[in-house]
Amino acid sequence: MVVVGAGLSGIGAGYRLQTECPGRSYVILEARDAIGGTWDLFRYPGVRSDSDMYTLGYSFRPWRESKSIAAGDTVLEYIRRTAERYRIEDKIRFRTKVVGADWSSEQGRWTVTVEQASEQGGVERRTMTCNFLYSCAGYYDYDSGYTPDFPGVEDYRGTVVHPQFWPRDLDYTGKRVVIIGSGATAITLLPSLARQAEHVTMLQRSPSWIVALPSRDKLGDRLRAALPPKVAHRIIRAKNVTMTVLVNQFCARRPAAARKMFIKLTQRAVRDEAMVREHFTPSYNPWEQRVCVAPDADFFRALRGGKADVVTEHIETFVPEGIRLKSGKVLEADVVVTATGLRLLAFGGIAPRVDGVEVPLGEQFVWRGAMVTGIPNFAVCIGYTNASWTLRGDLTSRLVCKVLNHMTERGYSSVVPVPDGTLRERPLLTLSSGYIQRSIQDFPRAGHRSPWRVRQNYILDAASTMRTDLDRTLRPTRREKTKVGSDG
What we know:
- The protein is of the alpha/beta class.
- Helices cover 30% and strands 23% of the residues.
- The protein has two domains: 2-142 and 343-479, FAD/NAD(P)-binding domain (3-Layer(bba) Sandwich); 148-340, FAD/NAD(P)-binding domain (3-Layer(bba) Sandwich), CATH 3.50.50.
- Strand 1 (2-4), helix 1 (8-20) and strand 2 (27-29) form a beta-alpha-beta unit.
- The longest helix is centred in the middle third of the chain and has 25 residues, at 229-253.
- It is globular and about 75 Å long.
- Residues 482-488 have low confidence and may be disordered.
């Protein structure tokens, strides 16, 4: 078996395969030269988790650090330690990028084409075969971020930086910085840059919902002090999952009341009602797009401290000294940070082919948020958009293990999900965020009913996913001629 990606999802998949499918061999292919995925790639100042680590972390390895909203390097170390502890790192092939995947119905196997960096600095193309392919590469394009075509940017005399590719040697001490954007990255960057910069301005076209949360879980701290680590972890995790689901359900069912609640919380943090009306009251309802987190209200404290501000306007053009807005105002800047979003890339850029024909992903349906119609022996890890990614990521890995064991028990060498009736399509990712809407047509679709719905509710998914009747919608496409062994 081949797992693509050695980030949070891939390491979790390795653990589940070792513990729940011990007779099956596997390898993890990682395009970069380090464990961690997103957490190793993103190195911009202040990078941190935007979900609590009791749910973003693994259920099988309790989070033991002091902060539940954790710094990026702490999250990265947690992933590395997990891979080391369970010997998963021994299964990883670094600098091995998957560039093609071809399924043969006749052979009942995948031929995976990879590019490997050689010690001489070149790139060698090779192939390997496996009987099951599991993409844990997420849905972001790690090679390019999203930046609009800003007019006049070629005339700008300062430095333009995208957070996804933050230069290690960038010195912004005592400089004027403008951050373009209002998403989670911009909210994280502003208080971090304000500590050293002369002044930081966050320039947004429209506001985002921002909620201030404690970086430490005080109740969790008390539980950890009183109970054994694993017991405390389970209780804290259950508490946080329940709170997340309740808040999301409240926002979905009572959007007007949710708006009032979020505005009131923001007013408490900002202490300026006029500023909240102008800069922190979005046109959309809470959780129609992902809500940004400001741990310990650091974002709002930076604004109150006078070294940062927010401007809500549209850009007319870049000018040599900075950015001219449509109002005519010029924001002078030594550094402009384009926190304008990410690009989505289905299955980490893998374009699966079946018997020589590329599968049109936009025409397929996703079964249980994991497997895809028309593609045998293939699964993809897609986390939640309104909760910690790992919650559904781990459910998906456990489901994949259940499918693999089911195949062994039934003597199937390949299976594919098939709808049992007509499905009405739903988008795979339901948030209205621009980065999703720009690319969602390239992804498979969800259906209107189980097991084709892709819910954003971990409690319901946890209760139903592992009880799935695999014989109902998972069809064998090939049976083993001999007993299935440990070949991955």
